Amino acid sequence: AKQQGRQRSQLYEDQPSPISSVRAGLESSLHHALERDELYLAYQPQVQVDSRRFAGVEALMRWQHSSLGSIPPAVFIPVLEDTGLIEAFGEWAIRSACRQYQQWLQQGQVPDNSKVSVNLSPRQFRQDNLEQIVRRTLTETGLPAHNLMLEITESMLMTSVEQNAELLSRLRELGIGVAIDDFGTGYSSLAYLKNLPIDVLKIDRMFVKDIVDNADDAAIAHSIINLAHNLGLKVIAEGVEDVEVLEILSLLGCDQYQGYYFARPSNAADIPDLVARCR
Ligand code: C2E
Ligand code: CA
Ligand code: CA
Ligand code: CA
What we know:
Blueprint: H1 2-14, H2 18-33, E1 39-48, E2 54-65, E3 69-71, H3 73-83, H4 86-106, E4 115-119, H5 122-126, H6 130-141, E5 148-153, H7 161-173, E6 177-183, H8 190-193, E7 200-203, H9 215-230, E8 234-237, H10 243-251, E9 256-257, H11 271-276
Parallel strand pairs: 2-4, 4-5, 5-6, 6-7, 7-8, 8-9
Antiparallel strand pairs: 1-2, 1-9, 2-3
Helix pairs in contact: 2-3, 4-6
Ligand C2E binds next to strand 2, helix 3, helix 4 and strand 6.
Domain EAL: 23-279
Protein name: cyclic-guanylate-specific phosphodiesterase
């Protein structure tokens, strides 16, 4: 058996495992995806819970592979992150989202006080020219800073808290908003929140989806909403799939929501009609 084990491990050393060759394949197609125009952004509307007014959109990266079809972000974003390609792709996402939103603003298709939110990966957040990229993109696209929000996750803030707070302050001095994504899924200390210059907490879908039947989830959502409001932050609930969930969020005082109940992430061309439905 020992002998066999050794043979097997030799086999794995000599030949790439199936997983690693799939990854290598994805990686090399990703190198070309941008220039081949296989990437685009989908936009998911964010809506005010009480007034039902349109509040903005979250931009979500999509990859339409020429032969494999649509590849989910959960598969390709980690590859981008590991290879460092995320820096270029992330910059592309910020620029595309800003350009698109500025166009909608100029055509009067979205309200002046609404926002486009763009996700930042851990690696982008540590990139030393992030602030420059954001500033340059706003200048080049003409998008007013108050129409842009960046989403970062809790786990990105766990280390070097002071440095992060400084970076966030500089970003907010540009006039953009900052949201903490997937709030509740990390292990952040609540105490640090009060020292962070942020605007929004997004409650993860994990605590939203069963809110109707699960009293614990409802209690967690309620606590997050109260905490956020006490700190002067707004709250967006993710993953709202039906009206019962929305009604509870309304009772709990949640500010905004996004989810399949109102709309799935949609092609840019479909957004103006979705906005019009909110008025
Ligand atoms: P996320 O930022 O938490 O995005 C929300 C995810 O929830 C999206 O998945 C969205 O399609 C999905 N969603 C929205 N409403 C509902 C709902 O009602 N029910 C359910 N079941 N799901 C809903 P998606 O588009 O597959 O993206 C997955 C993750 O990939 C994102 O999670 C984000 O972490 C990452 N991602 C997507 N685009 C980008 C990007 O441009 N840059 C970076 N760094 N990450 C991105
Ligand atoms: Ca997000
Ligand atoms: Ca999220
Ligand atoms: Ca999530």
